[in-house]
Amino acid sequence: METFEDFLKRILSILFWLLLLSPVIIFPVFFLLIPLLGISVPTTNEFLTALIDPIKGIQLANKYGVGPSSTFFKIAAFPGFTFAALIATITILYERKLIAKVQLRVGPLYAGRFEGVLQPIADLFKLLGKEIVVPEKADKFFFWSAPILSIGLGAALLAVLPLSPNIYIARSDVSLLIPFAIIGFSPLIVLIAAWASSNKFAFIGGLRALHQLVAYEIPMLISVLGVVILSGSLDLISIVESQQQVWFIFPQLLGAIIFYITILSELERVPFDIPEAETELVSGWLTEYTGMHFGLLQLGVYIKFYALSLLFTLLFLGGWYGPAFLPPLAWLLIKLFFVITIVILPRAVMPRLRIDQLIRLGWVWLIVLSFINLFIAVIEVSLGVI
Predict the structure, then answer these.
(1) Is-contact 212 265, C-beta < 8 A?
(2) ∠ CA(104), CA(108), CA(109), 5° rounding?
(3) Inside any domain, residue 6
(4) What angle, rounded to 10 degrees, do the helices at 253-266 and 200-223 form?
(5) 13 found inside a domain
(6) Which portions of the chain are predicted below pLDDT 70?
(7) pTM, full prediction
(8) Which domain holds residue 304?
(9) Three-class SS state of 224
């Protein structure tokens, strides 16, 4: 394949044969297994009616637990994994184009003809076609497990993050604590991937990730306590509802800045990309991963990127609240892409810090400023400012 047209023809031919053969393989298996599981099979009349009438189709899907109102749909499609993966895909293209514009470059241009809009799809199929190479001395089980764990961790963050008062997978009275509990496992996955690679550069990157965790995790947790004090709740929906009059970024500006810095560190983004550090460690803990192993790890990272940006939007920018001329979900997405933009920008303009500079920043400055921010929140509540 020498041109993008050849690439598209190859992909379309693969999709054609998959669609052609899927009824031959899937439907017999479906109709054999469903009766064994004790589930009634839709009649031919119901199935044909559902194809013609969208409302009947939705009702039939709801009947079998896969409709838009089902938990399965929420987890698998919206607002769960598929929606997050779509946002992550858009973010990857947006990041490459934005950084190129800032640095007076062109960026992806040819895939899709218009500003490289199909570049993420081209990258996906490129990774699908690449050989997966596993080092001879690697721990095979953990080496294969790390990409799956990365995807699982990113997907788990979506469970309690609401997109509106009615659009969420699950709601909890302590939903703010759950993302931080999940995030705590992230450096462990990095260390597993690094250790399993049996590569010195990868292992050094994994150790750096653990040092990074020590530097940012405590300030990250303390920085959001001011929001908890102002809202009087650990429920994310209640926290957003507390911002109908004033977004918390105004009374908690210092906390928002600290949380933003710790997000950069959690996502290993410039200037805190120390565990990867291409100029020092080849690609850090990612060095030995190729093909879709690398693709799954990157997808997990960008889903986490989306989740943390959404969390910042909910905590400090009033979530889905805005003027009535746009629906709540539209306001949330506008704010979300603003946060994504300010997280991306340092990569275009800043150099990387050393590990000792990061630890000094975390323990000397961020932790002190986070306690100061906590006292500010207490004073604001005591004076009745909020």
Answers:
(1) yes
(2) 95
(3) no
(4) 160
(5) no
(6) 1-11, 15-44, 46-48, 50-51, 64-66, 386
(7) 0.87
(8) 133-383
(9) coil
